[in-house]
Amino acid sequence: MNNRKNRNIWLEVTVIFASVAALLLLLYFVLIVSFQDGNRSTSTTMDIAATIAHRMYTHPTEEQVKTIGKMLRYVAHLGLFFVVGFMTTFVSMVFFRRYYRILGVALSGGACYILAYYTEYYKQFVEGRHFQATDIALNWYGSIAGIACMVVSYFMNRLLVKLSSGS
């Protein structure tokens, strides 16, 4: 019995460590991408947009490439912060147990909002970048979707476990 309890503790410590390490790597990636030089960021986005435009249209116009570039930027903000919201909520749910999970989810929301705002705020100090309120909203919406997805998956998992155990 004691040996099994020790294995469970090590498994829990491993999950916590891996979750925190993955979250820190993700946050590092967000900061690297956010503080990338403006010319490099725009060039990368427009290269990808041009490739997509050439696959969609026979002879894409400059306006079509710009529109695809804008959509790529929106999807990147939403997608990246969806993952951030999902991961921060997962880590908070690993740390906080029972009724304290509500506190963990609230703290995740606060951390995501701060990250969503300040990654945009500090862009104005990066060469070729600027502050955009729409990007804050996109970051925040992506985070909220990630948090909601994690919370719903948690409750679905609890429901499935309860149904499968027959109680």
Question: What descriptors fit this protein?
Answer:
mainly alpha, 167 residues, elongated
Structure characterization notes:
There is one protein chain. The protein is mostly helical and about 170 residues long. The radius of gyration is 20 Å and the shape is elongated. The chain has 5 helices and no strands. The two termini are about 25 Å apart. It is about 85% helix and about 0% strand. It has one domain (about 1-165). The mean pLDDT is about 90.
How is the main sheet built? none
Q: What is the general shape?
A: elongated
Distance between the termini: 25 Å
Overall number of structural domains: 1
Q: Mean pLDDT score, rounded?
A: 88
Rg calculated over all Cα atoms: 20 Å
What is the chain-wise order of helices and strands?
Answer: HHHHH
Give the low-confidence spans: none
The count of helical stretches stands at 5
| DSSP strand tally | 0
Structural category is mainly alpha
In percent, how much strand structure appears in the residues? under 5%
Helix content: over 70%
Question: Could you give the topology of this structure?
Answer:
Layout: H1 2-34, H2 38-56, H3 62-95, H4 101-121, H5 133-165
Helix pairs in contact: 1-3, 2-3, 3-4, 3-5, 4-5
Overview in brief:
By secondary structure, the protein is mostly helical.
